[in-house]
Amino acid sequence: MKIATFNINGIKARIDALPAWMADAEPDVVVLQEIKSMDENFPSEIFEERGYNVETHGQKSFNGVALLSKYPLEDVSRGLPGDPDDDQARWIEATVTGEKDALRICGLYLPNGNPAPGPKFDYKLDWMARLEGRARALLDEETPFLMTGDYNIIPQAEDAARPDAWRDDALFRMEARTAFRRIVNLGLTDAFRARTQGPGHYSFWDYQAGAWNKNDGIRIDHFLLSPACADRLKDCQIDRDVRGKEKPSDHVPVWIELDI
DNA sequence: ATGCCGCCTCATAGGCGA
Predict the structure, then answer these.
(1) What are phi and psi of A256, to 5 degrees?
(2) For chain A, what is the domain count?
(3) Confidence at residue A75, expressed as pLDDT on a 0 to 100 scale
(4) What is the CATH number for A217?
(5) pLDDT tier at A122, thresholds 50, 70, 90
(6) Quick one: average pLDDT of A77-100?
(7) pTM greater than the 0.85 cutoff
(8) Which residues fall inside 7 Å of strand B, measured at CB?
(9) Residues in domain Endonuclease/exonuclease/phosphatase (predicted)?
(10) What is the pLDDT at residue A142?
(11) Catalytic annotation on A109?
């Protein structure tokens, strides 16, 4: 089962590039972030015509996550538990069943948190505490699971071309990295780092200042796998070439292959 | 020190992103 995550930075702007990449990559499941669309305006038909089931959790103008899956999407749940006043659309989860086992797939768009310090950074840290709570709850269940999406976290210096430039940024500040590390340390596996070590692997390049041409990127789109899920990991890759194509998002897809 | 670029919208300027 091939599962991909992709922050598309607006479904309307990626109406050609997203299906083009999917036709090439042939993922079984796609976890989308920043659809920037309300549910009723998401062009589900485009994907349904290609054999995907579609579940969205959208909002107007900002944020928004979605699941596209060739397998049925069961027990769909929207919104990260822990704060009934949080109306930002950043979390969706569903169960898919492969040939061997069921898998709980959680799609997330973690808050950016800039400027830091400040209320937006506080919201990011609060959100990460809730994410840790959800991870703990899922670990108590029997179903293997993964949590994937745009984490807006640079885990280590090797995950940025210019780590010094990010030192005080909400994506790299110690409080944010520590919160991420605390979640991983529950027993989850960073799928990319389970397969590939060393610097120079990025999933985001800013539109500004020629970042792509200079390969001035950061790795902020991640797969965290539960122990039972990590046992099924066959591969994890970043589709970096997508950044150089026509009208790209500033993020590229990251995908895993699971024997499940 | 800031903007760079590109997304969005009760748009044509301003908020947001990373």
Answers:
(1) -125, 155
(2) 1
(3) 98
(4) 3.60.10.10
(5) very high
(6) 96
(7) yes
(8) A 7, 9-13, 34, 36-37, 60-62, 111-112, 114, 120, 150, 152, 171, 204, 206-209, 218, 220, 247, 250
(9) 4-251
(10) 86
(11) yes
